[in-house]
Write a structure and sequence with these properties.
The structure holds 2 protein chains of 2 kinds. By secondary structure, chain A is of the alpha/beta class. Chain A has 16 helices and 11 strands. In chain A, strands 1-3-2-4-6-5-10-11-9-7-8 form an 11-stranded mixed beta sheet, sandwiched between helices. In chain B, helix 1 packs across helix 2. The chains are: A alpha/beta, B mainly alpha.
């Protein structure tokens, strides 16, 4: 049975009214995921034992009259770069094909403590490096909306399983757009919170100054609820923010009462509409029209450094990745090449056999830009340009409450279409990368489909820690566009 | 342009035993990407401070904690994913000859 008709709130209501038990729901979810997964390859691993134990614990709490938690009985999927104790975590890499983590990520602990039921681990680009999910060592994910097309990446599996109805919500990770771009390609909501809002403890590090964990969901409200559970300071991640976590869902409820988004100032960055595929551009402008009807004041804003963001990002992200991925050397994490006889050869052969082409490309680029004689020209230069990109957003967000625009220049492309052209693939991240560089919250909200039936996402950016504002705008749009 | 010679040197630094075919392709791919990255030089950044991290207002000592002993992974758990382990250690090919 598809989970597409369920929300976090409807599951909670069903459990309390005894329409179904958490265990029944988990069994149905697992059976449906097992039957449907071959179509998309969204899940790499299903977790029946863990799911049933979590569901039974929820049922026991309800039977004992205790609060089963805000995510009670909700079938959740977790991207396979986020570690789960005792449950295989591959990072989409051959290197970790048999890796069984000895601990849980903080986000995983929090969602299970809230009653969430982890159904399985989702496919992704290897070590979260990619925009199409074609870089997984375990095969690409297919887009549920068009099976010959990519679901986006790198969190392609986490987007696909929610779109397919084999999970109600999921966790992904975003370094340059890896939550928002697949959300837009698959037609679901995807949220990249403020940098530091969610602990990354247990997220396999890709580019530490840019990595985020965030939710996918069918409705804005479900993303708000899931974020509320996983957000907040964690002493295991010194970069996690101390700022208190607002009651996002409560604020949505009060927003509904006070007349929503009338008078909110919305900025359209002119740089986001140059070179935009026409159908995508039309759908975004239609969505902006809906916001205007809701009483938002729309004006143009200037983000002059947008054209430099991709170059800036691919220096910083690869530099950090080359350092973070150095740990996969054949000593601690499952894989080791048999053929090597010296320590140096063991490192080199293990890594060359284990990493896929895109990871090697990024490790090489990152090593190059950090190497003697190039550090100032590339890495330091990119960090300075990053400051300019962040300043663009800070200045624009002084004039407006939110910035909106497209997520991707085009809808989902065909599997194999861009695989041999890394620069073209990187350039497709142009609108998402800036949000990560600035560290501000941003999300993708579905805003219709092209004539071919391919989903398009509207992107919303707000100020640091203004997720509540972002959800409010997103939900007002969602309600107006689906009613 | 980045040469195949450069690629060999960087592969050495990155601990990757690239094959000859991979070296050829890597030189081509990285040259294409670096040509795009050169765009950054259009910007004058002489008066811009580099941004290494997204930072927020907090006490300087906010992320510090008391240095106290806490439970950690057991030796068994820490070694459980090692390809080769023995006597409570990770084992690697011999580095020092007698």
């Amino acid at each position: 049975m598809s989970l597409a008709g369920y929300s976090i709130d409807s599951i909670r209501a069903g459990l309390i009214e005894k329409k179904f038990s958490a265990e029944e729901l988990a069994r149905e979810a697992l059976a449906y995921a097992e039957a449907e997964n071959p179509k998309t390859n969204g899940y790499l691993t299903l977790a029946p034992e863990r799911a049933l134990a979590a569901a039974q614990a929820v049922d026991q709490k309800i039977a004992a009259g205790q609060d089963p938690g805000p995510l009670a009985g909700v079938p959740v999927a977790v991207k396979d770069v986020i570690v789960t104790r005792g449950l295989r975590t591959t990072c989409g890499s051959r290197l970790l094909a048999n890796y069984i983590p000895p601990y849980d990520a903080t986000a995983v602990i929090r969602l299970e403590q809230a009653g969430g039921v982890i159904i399985g681990k989702t496919n992704c680009d290897e070590f979260a490096m990619g925009s199409s999910n074609e870089n997984s060592a375990f095969g690409p994910v297919r887009n549920p909306a068009a099976l010959d097309r990519v679901p986006g990446g790198s969190s392609g599996g986490s987007a696909a399983v929610v779109a397919q109805g084999t999970a109600v919500v999921s966790l992904g990770s975003d370094t340059g757009g890896s939550i928002r771009q697949p959300a837009s390609f698959c037609g679901v909501n995807g949220v990249t919170p403020t940098y530091g809002r969610v602990s990354r403890y247990g997220l396999t590090a890709f580019a530490s100054s840019l990595d985020h964990i965030g939710p996918f969901s069918r409705t804005v409200r479900d993303s708000a609820r899931l974020l509320q559970v996983i957000a907040g300071r964690d002493e295991m991640d010194s970069t996690s923010a101390f700022a208190p976590v607002p009651d996002y869902v409560g604020l949505l409820d009060s927003a509904a009462l006070d007349g929503n988004v009338r008078g909110k100032k919305i900025g359209l960055p002119k740089q986001f509409f140059e070179g935009l595929a026409s159908e995508t551009g039309d759908l975004i402008l239609e969505a902006v029209g809906v916001l205007k009807k809701l009483g938002c004041e729309v004006r143009e804003v200037d983000l002059p450094h947008t054209p430099y963001a991709v170059a800036c990002y691919y220096v910083i992200a690869t530099a950090e990745a080359s350092s973070n991925l150095a740990r996969f050397d054949g000593v601690r994490y499952t894989s080791r090449a048999d053929s090597a006889s010296t320590l140096a050869d063991m490192y080199r052969v293990t890594r060359n056999e284990g990493f896929g082409a895109e990871c090697k490309r990024r490790i090489m680029l990152g090593t190059y830009v950090l190497s003697a004689g190039y550090y100032d020209a590339y890495y330091l230069k990119a960090q300075k340009v990053r400051a300019l990109v962040a300043r663009d957003y800070a200045q624009a967000l002084e004039q407006v409450d939110a910035i909106v625009g497209p997520v991707s220049p085009h809808p989902a492309f065909k599997i194999g279409e861009l695989v041999d052209d890394p620069v073209a693939m990187y350039l497709s991240d142009i609108y998402t990368i800036t949000g990560d560089l600035a560290g501000i919250p941003c999300m993708s909200v579905p805003c219709g489909t092209t004539r071919e039936g391919l989903p398009v996402g509207l992107q919303i950016f707000t100020r640091h820690f203004a997720e509540a504002e972002m959800f409010r705008l997103a939900e007002a749009y969602e309600r107006a566009s689906t009613s | 342009m980045i040469s195949e010679q450069d690629i060999r040197r960087v592969a050495e630094l990155a601990n990757l035993a690239l094959t000859e075919d991979e070296i050829v392709r890597m030189a081509r791919d990285l040259s294409g990407i670096l040509a795009h990255v050169d765009k950054l030089n259009e910007l004058d950044t002489s008066n811009v401070a580099p941004m290494a991290q997204v930072l927020f207002e907090a006490e300087e000592t906010a992320t510090l904690r008391e240095d106290r002993e806490k439970p950690c992974l057991s030796n068994h758990d820490a070694l459980a994913n090692a390809p080769v382990a023995g006597a409570g250690y990770f084992k690697v090919p011999k580095v020092i000859e007698r």
